[in-house]
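Thread: quick sanity check before group meeting

JM: Hey all, I'm pulling together slides for Thursday and realized we never actually wrote out the predicted structure for the chain we discussed last week. Dropping the sequence here so it's in one place. If anyone has concerns about the input, flag it before I start.
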Amino acid sequence: MSFDNIKGAAAAVNAVTNSLSLTALPNPEMDISLISNFQSEEEVTGKSVEKDEPEASLSLDNPTLETMTENLKEGGKKRIPNPGSSNSVLEILTVLGTSIKSETYRSSREVRNILDAGILNNRHIAVSIVSTKITLFSKAAIGAIRRLVHYYPSASLDAEHIELSSPYTLIAHCLKDLESFCAEVHETDATKAPNSTTVEDDVPSTPTCNKDTVEHLGILIDFVKEHVFKHKIEEEEKRHAQSLCTFRMLWLLFKPGDTVYVESGGRQVAYVVQSVQVDDSIMAPDRRRYDPYTITVWNLAFDGTFVRRANLKVYISHFEGERSITSLKVFPSTFLDQKDNCETRRKLEASGEKWYGLLRGAQMYYNGHIMSPSKGTLVGRVYIDSSSYYSQHGNGPDVGEVDDIGEGLAKCPCEQCHGRRPHPPVQFPWGKYDFLDPDVTESLVDEESPHGARHRYLICEGFVYGFVLKSKKWEKLDIECLLPPQPNLKAMESLVMPEDRKVMIKALVEKFSRVNHGKGSSKSWGADFIQNKGEECIAEFTGRALLSLTCGDIGTDEVVIEQRLSEWFRLAEKWGAVMLLDEADVFLERRQISDLKRNSLVSDFEVTMRAKKYILSQHALNEMEWNGREIRNIFQTAVALAEYRFSRKTDKTEFDGPVLDQQDFEQVCNMTQEFKQYLTNIRGNDEEERAGAHNDRFDDRVSGQ
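JM (edit): ok, ran it. Output follows.
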C-alpha cells in the first residue's frame, strides 16, 4: 500500500468517526471502542521499502474498524484486550458514547441482538465521540521522545509503552522539536542497524535519529496534525500573537517547565508549570461546555530548614469566545514580559533575592498590611525569623511533595536527597531547585541555568514570618512591605547624664555586642543600664532589635518560668538583641520564710539568669566594699573604656594598641561610688546596714561593736 493510499484510508477513518459525532449525548449510556492499528509498510509486508518510495508509510490493520462494546458500570469500563500486533508502531483507541440504555445484568444474548441490529449505522442509536487515546509501541519513537522531552510529569515516559490521551498535549507542546529532530538526520546514523534506538539506550548529549526513528515519528506526527489538530494549532498561535486565547485550545499555553505568572492578592507571582489536566473530549466538535482546566504549578518555598519546591493548583473555568491571555488567573510570563519590558520580572527577582536573604534572619521595618488571618496594618520594627516561627508552631509547611521525578521510585538516603525524595535522574532539569540551605548557599544566581541566571529568585514565594517587637506576636509579612531599619545612632546623646558616663555605657555596649564571626550572630547580652529611655538608646546605638519583656511574657508560675525565659533568651541570642527585663525586681525581691512559692520563683529566675549569663548581675553593683568580684568588674569595665577609646582613635598604626591608664580606673570608680551613694540616699542606709536590719548577716560595723 502506498503512502498516499494509506493517507486516504486514514482520512476515511476520520470521516467515519466524525460522522458518528453529529448527535451530542449529554449522558451516554454505553460506550463502543474503535481500534485502529498503525504499522510501517515494511512491518506489514515484511519487505524493504524501495528507495523511490516515501520513507514513511502506514496502513490500517483493520480498515473496517473492528468494533467492541463495553457496558458502563457505575462509571467504570471493561478493559478491552489489546488487538495490536507485536510490530505495531502505535494504536489509536476511539471511545464513542451511545444512547443504548445501560443495564447491569444484560445477558450475552441481548448483547448479541444489539450488535446484530447494528450500532454505527443504526438511526435509532445516537453516537458521539467521548475520547481518543494513542498507545505508542515503537521503541525507536519512544527513545527519541525521551531524548527530546526532559520534563513532562503527566506522561509516563519511562514505561514500556507511552499512552497519550486527547488532545495529545505532549505532541503539541513538542511538535516543533519533534519535526526539527526528524529533519536533522545525521549521516553517521546511516550505518546503524534498524531499531537501534531502544528503551535501554543511554541518553546522549546531542540527540540523533535513524531511518526507523524518522519513519515511526512521522506516523505519529502526521496522524495528530492531519486528523486531530488540523489547523487548530496554527489558528490558536495567531491568536497568541495578539495576546488572545480560546478555552478549547487553552492547554496549548501551558507547557510543563515553562514559567508562568499567577495572580495572588492583586499581584503576580511566578511559578513553573508542572502539568495541565485537560478534558479528554476537549477536541470533540459537538461539545458546548467542558470541565475546568486544572493547572498544577510549583515555586520555591521555605520549610523551616531548606528552600524546596511547593505545589499549587489553579483552576480555569469554561468561557466562551476569545479572552486576553494576561487576564487569566495564570498565564505564560512571556506575554507580560513583552508588554512591560520585563519590569514585573525584575521586580519579582529583586523580591526573591530579598526573601532568600531574610531567611537567615534580620531586623526590618514593616509598613503595610499583614498577611495573617487577623489582617490589619502594621508599622514598626520586626525581626524576621521564619525558622523560629515554624519551630515554635509545629512543623513547617507541606513543601517538597512535588511528585514529578518519576513513578514508583523509592526515596534516596544520600546527602543530596536527605531521604525525602527519589534521586533525580541526569536529565531532570530542576535538581538545583531543591534542598537549598540559606546558611550554606549564599546566592541563588546560576549563570548556567537555561531559564536565566536569576530564575530561582524569580519563583520564590512572597512572604516571611516575623516577630513584631512591639506587640511580641508572630505575623505573616509581605516581603514587599519590608524595609531596612533606620536606627537613630545619636539617640544616646539625648540622655540626660554626664558625658563620661555616656562614654562608659557606649564602651560596655560595644564590648558586649561584638559580632561572633563564626555564624554571624552576636554575643548574648542584655542590660537595663538606664531607667526609661536607656534601653531604647542602647538598641539604637548598636542597631539591634530591642526585646522588651514584662512579667506577663515570662509568667509567674515557677513550673513554666524557666521554659519561657530560656526560649526568650534563645531568641535574643539568635537575633543578637538587646533584651530588657522590665519589672525584674519582682523576680529579685528578698526571699521570705513565709512565702515559699515566691522563694521558688526567685530561685528559678536567678538560676536561669546565672546559667545563661545574659545580664550583668545587679548584686555586683550593689556591693561596693571592693571585694574580688568588684575589682574584677571594675577592671573589665576600665579595659572596655580603653578599647573603646582606641577604636575611636584616627591616627593609630598597625603597631599601636589599647592603653589602660589611670583615668579609666578613676572614671569607673567614680561612677561606682555615685551609684552606691544613690542607693544609700533613696533607702536611708547602705547594704551592710540593710543586711543587719534584716538579720541576714552580722558585721562589727553594723552592730556598732
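AS: nice. The chain has a mean pLDDT of 74. Residues 242-351 form one domain.
JM: adding both to the slides.
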